[in-house]
Amino acid sequence: MAAATKTRSTAAPPQAVAGSKDHEHPAWITSEPSGVGWVDEVRERHLAAVIAFADAAAAEAEAVSAQRQDQAEHRAQVRRAVASGQEPPEPPDPAVAEARVSVAREDVIGAQDALARVALDALAALRAPERREAVETLMGRFSPALRHSLREGPGGRVSGRLAELRRELARLEGPAIEVLTDDSPTEVTSDV
Do the domain assignments include residue 18? Predict the structure, then answer.
């Protein structure tokens, strides 16, 4: 099974891969060009890496789908052969299908690693001290995830949300209720 090579324009970014991290989304930097040359170059490198990752993930999904389809077709052939009293056909070599899926998975991991390196390079470029003023003027155009990463470091959005949840939990717990630990019997009077 030969994998088809797909080419995409970075003008129409792909959908994010299901379960992807913030930096793996096409609009992680900005959804549209910013008009600032060096920022748009960083954005284009990021989009190219996102597209490579999305294409690799799609190829892996196709390999898994083809493997399942081959298995389903073999089961149907076995049913037809048994129903007509013929000898069932040999199953397809599972090692070949597993190798195709394994190679596709390795491609996904490679593309994901390359995308992570591009994201780190993008953060380094955006955090450069000589670019601080330019970045501050563009901050409103950046994605919320990128803004959090720039201000609070990688995973900033998650750590910010965690801090919010801790504050909310502390508020809900409120003042502590004193627990009485004296189990001795008390005398009940009926002075009522």
Answer: no
Angle at 17 between CA 8 and CA 164, to 5 degrees: 130
- Examine residue 136 and state whether it is found in any structural domain, yes or no: yes
H/E element holding 2?
none
What's the pTM? Answer: 0.69
Is residue 45 packed enough to be buried (19+ CB in 10 Å), middle (13-18) or exposed (0-12)? middle
**Max Cα-Cα span within the chain:** 97
| CA 51/CA 86 separation, integer angstroms | 48
Count of other CB atoms within 10 angstroms of residue 159: 13
Q: Write out the chain's pLDDT in tens, 192 residues.
A: 444 444 444 456 677 888 888 888 888 888 888 888 899 999 999 999 999 999 999 999 999 999 999 999 999 999 999 999 999 999 888 899 899 999 999 999 999 999 999 999 999 899 888 988 888 888 888 888 888 888 876 665 666 677 788 888 888 876 666 666 766 666 666 665
Total structural domains in the chain?
Answer: 1
| Amino acid occupying residue 74 | H
Instruction: Establish if 4 belongs to a structural domain.
Output: no
Whether residue 172 lies inside any domain: the answer is: no
